[in-house]
Design brief:
mainly alpha; Citrate Synthase, domain 1; Cytochrome p450-Terp, domain 2; binds coenzyme A; single chain; three-stranded antiparallel beta sheet
Length: 363
């Protein structure tokens, strides 16, 4: 019996949604190169592409924008649930709990639909913003119908209509992280619905998986790494010692990309446009250069490069977003990919059921 720990290299499904080309460092959504999509399309257009399989015309785009707006407000019972949660509960656990409770809505009975996907995608930014306002003890800024998805999210977080440059930066990040093949959280979602469970259970599983530091939790680890290096004043020493101790450097390495992560390249470009000269960005670029060199020396042949989380952390810092919001924001965008995969899994379902090899003794 051959054991493939972590299912490394195993192809467990066919998909029309996205392609991660790890050797050439390319990411494709429904046939379109991600670099091209981030240049000219909005969050709503690319979400439409992922759900429906083609880019929308003007009327279809307006229809999606309207539907997202109609679903933004939290129903009263979800607000009550958030109000009852302990203040110490972290934001990912709050999202997981509230989305799970949203499953009590009879709307989700029967087969999963794109309307369900739209509603779930629409709710996440409001859950995050409402919880943030509640923790900070200030008035909640209700969603604004004159703002699109990304700018409304920033508006709800800050209470101010965001700068165009900030919307563009966050929109690039969100577009680059909408979908990424059979990553751990998408796999969780597909496993859950492969039992013919419902879409809300699927995304609830995915949120729980996303929370872990090796997946969605990495960006806050990147900030910790950069802060530690800034404090120590010697990037090479800190990095070397961490690797020698067997620690993983947050923001580096990837299961599929064995070259530079194209999302990291795109985000770095965006960041340079956004902030220009900046001490913190200079530190990030210096750490990137040193880390890649030291990883190559101490872990030869493992092809460890910067991943999306490294520059995601830098973008969010430039937007003055607190580290506690990094993974939740990733969740807000990946909800699109999860739901697209859930719909695809349901169309041609086979239950996921790998085997394990017993290594205990027979008594
Ligand atoms: C993403 C990740 C989980 C991929 O893991 P993986 O494909 O299972 O790769 P492995 O953990 O088997 O690593 C292979 C080797 O590279 C090393 N390695 C991988 N990522 C590393 C990192 N970030 N820092 C230091 N060493 C790393 C491992 O220690 C291992 O070394 P070994 O052969 O001496 O045992 C892993 O690279 C990681 O934990 N990165 C940091 C967290 C992160 O940034 N996550 C966001 C991903 S988008």
């Amino acid at each position: 019996m051959n054991v493939q720990k972590g299912l490394k290299g195993i192809v467990a499904a066919e998909t029309l949604i996205g392609h991660v080309d790890g050797e050439n460092g390319e990411l494709i959504y429904r046939g379109y190169e991600i670099r091209e999509l981030t240049k000219s399309y909005s969050f709503e257009e690319v979400a439409y592409l992922l759900w429906y399989g083609y880019l929308p015309d003007e009327g279809q785009l307006q229809g999606l924008k309207d539907e997202l707006k109609r679903n933004r407000e939290l129903p009263e019972y979800l607000i009550k649930i958030i109000d009852l949660l302990p203040p110490s509960m972290d934001m990912m656990s709050v999202i997981r709990t509230v989305i799970s409770a949203e499953g009590g809505n009879s709307e989700y009975e029967g087969i999963a639909t794109i309307s369900h996907a739209i509603r779930l995608t629409s709710l996440v930014p409001t859950i995050i913003a409402y919880r943030k306002s509640q923790i900070e003890g200030r008035l909640f800024e209700h969603p604004r119908d004159d703002l699109d998805h990304v700018s409304n999210y920033l508006y709800m977080l800050t209470g101010e209509v965001p700068l165009e440059a900030h919307v563009e930066a966050l929109e690039s990040y969100m577009l680059l992280t909408l979908e990424h093949g059979m990553n751990a959280s998408t796999f969780s979602a597909r496993v859950t619905v492969s039992t013919e469970s419902d879409i809300v259970s699927g995304v609830t599983s995915a949120i729980g998986t996303m929370k872990g530091p090796l997946h969605g939790g990495a960006p806050s680890g990147v900030i910790d790494l950069l802060n530690e290096i800034a404090l120590a004043g010697d990037a090479e020493k800190v990095i070397r010692e961490k690797i020698m101790r067997g620690e993983k450097l947050m923001g580096f390495g990837h299961r599929v990309y064995k070259t530079r992560d194209p999302r990291a390249i795109a985000l770095k470009t965006k960041l340079l446009e956004l902030v220009g000269e900046d001490e913190w960005l200079d530190l990030a670029m210096k750490v990137e250069e040193v880390a890649i060199r030291v990883l190559e020396e101490l872990k030869p042949g493992r092809s460890l490069y910067t991943n999306v989380e490294f520059y995601a952390a830098a973008i969010m810092k430039a937007l003055e977003m607190e580290p506690e919001l990094f993974t939740p924001t990733f969740t807000a965008s990946r909800m699109v990919g999860w739901t697209a995969h859930i719909l695809e899994q349901a169309e041609n379902n086979t239950i996921f059921r790998p085997q394990s090899k017993y290594i205990g003794v027979l008594k």
